[in-house]
Model the fold of this input.
Amino acid sequence: MRTKLIAGNWKMNNTPSQGVALINEIKETANAASCDVVVCTPYICLPAAVQAANGSKIAVSAENMHFEDKGAFTGEISAAMLKEVGVTYTVIGHSERREYFAETDKTVNLKTIKALENDIVPIVCVGESLEQRESGVAFDFIAMQVKLALNGISAEDAKKVVIAYEPIWAIGTGKTATDEQANEVCAFIRQQITALYGTDVADTMRILYGGSMNAGNAAGLLAQSDIDGGLIGGASLKAPDFCTIINAATNA
Done:
């Protein structure tokens, strides 16, 4: 059985003090949960978040990182920097990074490799636009994203990767795929992992749903066979809602 993972992606929200307050509000629920709980915070919040989460079951994730160890990359953060402050996960290739900041399948792959080299768990995001879904190329597009993201990564390292399926048309729009639609794509992603690495890796890898999961729909989504958790946006900013989702994962 794969342990469920609930990751809250704060995006560009919360100051360090606000982040600490939020972590303190969810700590009791997270400590009692049977799932893994991660908060993905802006860079400026990471040290305070790590300190606030210390001694709890909450792990801390960055929302991005660079693929080089060091250099003239103004405004970027390296894996070594993240590791030194206690970060254990990082989001890679979120649709907003791809759309607004020119993230490519190549940089996603390089970042995934670099995260693994530094014992940081990459949460690699894949997903289609509404146009791609309606034109019937969604599955081909997602298969390509998965293959390119994992290019050159060994089977042993692939087991450590988390993939988050985020239908772009369902992010921040309030829309969500049905439970069955979400599970269908997550199962398809697992089939791609089987083709690349075999059933051992596919059965081990956690695949999350990242399309507007909230307190109202989490239980149904998390009950699906191939959805191993959620990458939560807006609902992760509200402690009661996030705690409801954590509890749904525990009870799934």
